[in-house]
Design goal:
Blueprint: H1 3-14, H2 22-27, H3 29-47, E1 59-62, H4 68-73, H5 76-100, H6 104-126, E2 142-145, H7 148-174
Antiparallel strand pairs: 1-2
Helix pairs in contact: 1-6, 3-6, 3-7, 5-6, 5-7
Length: about 180
């Protein structure tokens, strides 16, 4: 089977999308748009939390900005590895923040963010490319963040940017 179909099947095993088919995940642009909307909603909800504390121990977040022209010149495997590194750092930041945030609203939002971020990470880890498998230990560009809202901003930017363009490329190749 094609790598894109394997990716989609694996993704569906980790994301609760009751009525989705593997082809729909990549071939139906509305699904990635749904994840972008959810990321925006989570970002908005966390900004509405009252008295959200500053993290006593800053978390390390990936810098997920990118130049689209440079991004287009990278191989799919390079893109996947870059996103994997950033997702691994993001999931670790969410976990680190969860250990520090006792405020109900913030803790609930972090818990909701952990699910899709970790699912994208697991999906891309298990995706089978011909090249060697992904290994932890990469070092993406990063920054320290003491504000919980910054974690949600980073996730939204990653989904809205690199992940969306990665899935768009898979769609062009597979649909």
């Amino acid at each position: 089977s094609s790598p894109a179909l394997l990716l989609l099947t694996s993704f569906l095993l980790h994301i609760k999308e009751g009525h989705s088919s593997p082809t729909r995940l990549v071939c139906d642009n509305r699904l990635i748009q749904k994840y972008i909307r959810e990321a925006k909603d989570m970002e908005k909800k966390v900004s509405q939390c009252q008295a959200l504390p500053t993290l006593s121990s800053p978390v390390v977040l990936p810098l997920v900005d990118f130049n689209l022209q440079q991004w287009k010149t990278k191989s799919d495997e390079t893109k996947r590895r870059e996103i994997l590194c950033e997702l691994a750092l993001l999931v670790a930041a969410v976990t680190g923040a969860q250990e520090q945030v006792n405020q109900e609203c913030g803790a609930r939002q972090l818990s909701q963010l952990y699910g899709p971020a970790n699912s994208f990470l697991r999906l891309l880890q298990t995706f089978g490319w011909e090249e060697r498998p992904w290994e932890p230990g990469c070092s993406p560009r990063s920054m320290e963040q003491s504000h919980v809202a910054g974690i949600f901003l980073t996730y939204r930017q990653l989904v809205q940017g690199k992940l969306r363009f990665f899935f768009d490329k898979l769609a062009k190749d597979s649909c």
